[in-house]
Amino acid sequence: MTNTWIVTTNAQIGNLVEAGRALGGTITVVAVGDAQIAGVDKVISITADADVPAEAYAGAVADAVAAGDQDVVLAPNRPAERVLAGAVAARLNAPVLSSVKKVDAEGAHVARFGGITLQTDALTARAVLIMDGGPAPEGDPVAAESVAAQAYPATVSSTESAQGERVDLTTAQRIIACGRGFKEQSELSLAQDAANAMDAQLACSRPLAEGVNWFDKDRYIGVSGLTVAPDVYVAVGISGQIQHLAGMLDSKVVVAINNDKNAPIFKAAAYGIVGELEQVLPQLTEALKA
After folding, report:
1. Consecutive H or E run containing 15
2. Which of 71, 81, 167, 269 could disulfide-link to 256, CB 3.0 to 4.6 Å?
3. 77 among annotated binding-site residues
4. Is 206 annotated among the ligand-binding residues?
5. Which segments of the chain belong to CATH 3.40.50.620?
6. What is the phi/psi pair of residue 113, to 5°?
7. What's the mean per-residue pLDDT of the chain?
8. Pairing of the two strands 2-8 and 107-112
9. How far apart are the C-alpha atoms of 261 and 81, rounded to whole Å?
10. What is the pTM assigned to this prediction?
11. 146 annotated to a ligand binding site
């Protein structure tokens, strides 16, 4: 059996816990802060000061993991946790595998070439794997063992909150993604109306997040953005280049709406509508409300 350790700053680690269970050994979590973690065998909580960034405890996290019996270390694909994972890998002299899609008895299944193929790496030695965290595991929180730790000399001098609602698209069941087919920002209200009608979250392709800044970057789907796997993925005005497809190929049902009948997105879609989004989206919203 393979013993799994997880490093995190919050409870959104359901996918990692599932991966650990697939490996068959014990699961130990090292959490920076007071996150309430369920579904694991042991939790080590590193006490963190409010004005100290989680990354400053990277050395303490590495010490805690190195002191245990670990075969595989998992970290959610989030900025702070990637720093913690790097520190653990350096301490253990272990490789880091990113873009991990799945872990099982065969090894780590890693997305390669923009997500169009999976490479299986056998876990024959200690390794640090980075993958989507997923939702919080269900169940009662495990009583944590609190550990006081010395942080690196860093403090948070100021914070700037992003505008708009923060969402976790990796756990969304339904997503409507908007692309460059939207000519004006005001047209996004058509997509929002449809999303409200189907209880979906709004997302976007890269140009709408990094080009015209109509969306926050936490809503950008693609090879250098988020990878999602909802039950339903509606791509509106998205051509379907591989850079975007890599982020949504695991969707169970894909619906494409585009005015170009030759758009590559239709090859990835189970259902397609050729038409202008200004006409199709209002009709879709009314149909969903019926």
Report:
1. helix 14-23
2. 269
3. no
4. yes
5. 2-147
6. 55, 50
7. 92
8. unpaired
9. 42
10. 0.75
11. no
Q: What is the largest CA-CA distance in the chain?
A: 61
Residue 160 has pLDDT above 80, yes or no: no
Which CATH number among 1.10.3210.10, 3.40.50.620, 3.40.1710.10, 3.90.950.10 corresponds to the domain 2-147?
A: 3.40.50.620
Q: Is 238 annotated as a binding residue?
A: yes
For residue range 196-234, list pLDDT tens digits in order.
999 999 999 999 999 999 999 889 999 888 889 999 999
Name the residue with tokens 């280049």: 241
* 283 belongs to an annotated ligand binding site: no
Residue 258 is labelled as binding a ligand: yes
Q: Residue 237 contacts by C-beta under 8 Å, 6 or more apart in sequence?
A: 178, 179, 180, 181, 182, 257, 258, 259, 277
From CA 275, how far away is CA 233, in angstroms rounded?
18
Instruction: For residue 206, report the phi and psi dihedrals to the nearest 5 degrees.
Output: -55, -45
- Tell me: is residue 180 an annotated ligand-binding position: yes
Per DSSP, the three-state class of 129 is: strand
Domain at 169-289: CATH code: 3.40.50.1220
Residue intervals of the chain classified under CATH 3.40.50.1220 are: 169-289
- When pLDDT is cut at 50, 70 and 90, the band that residue 249 belongs to is confident
- Find out whether 242 is annotated in a ligand binding site: yes
- Tokens standing for residue 281: 């989206």
Distance from C-alpha of 202 to C-alpha of 191, rounded to nearest angstrom: 8
**Amino acid letter at 241?**
Q
End-to-end CA distance of the chain: 52
b/e per residue 21-50 (b: at least 16 CB within 10 A): eebebbbbbbbbeebebbbbebbbbbebee
Q: Is the separation of the CB atoms in 189 and 175 below 8 Å?
A: no
224 marked among binding-site residues: no
